[in-house]
């Protein structure tokens, strides 16, 4: 049985800390594809932790992790993009709420994979549109630069989510499904 989304216990805090640290430390690793935009494998971490622990963990870890990445790489936090990463993690964690979805126990159905893909892709697009709006409205960034950034970031984040994030969650569930078939002989 899944625990409450808002139950803040030691396990939840440690999970958020681990995901945020991993996301923050690996967020600057990537292949440049445009102005201040890279293909970043770290986005798969939000998919994994969101799916396994829920939208609250995904949101919090995405926000803290992005803040860490910004501080490590430039010394300045881009709040719109940090909130965008938080929204991405939250959307990817929505699948956690579905009845019968439990990769920790090896339970993932085809319909869960479809919903996970839809929520992840929609989350990526909406979060980057939010970041675009935030940068134009509050940071005074030029919209033409942001159109390129948001377009490239959307495509690259979706690719990483589909190629790394979804298969990682499915692989984890498959591994746990096999392990659950073991019996103890006395």
UniProtKB/TrEMBL annotation:
Positions in coiled-coil regions: none
Gene Ontology cellular-component annotations: membrane
InterPro entries: ECF_substrate-spec-like
TM stretches of this protein: 12-31, 43-64, 76-101, 113-134, 146-173
Superkingdom per UniProt: Bacteria
Keywords assigned: Membrane, Transmembrane, Transmembrane helix
Protein name: ECF transporter S component
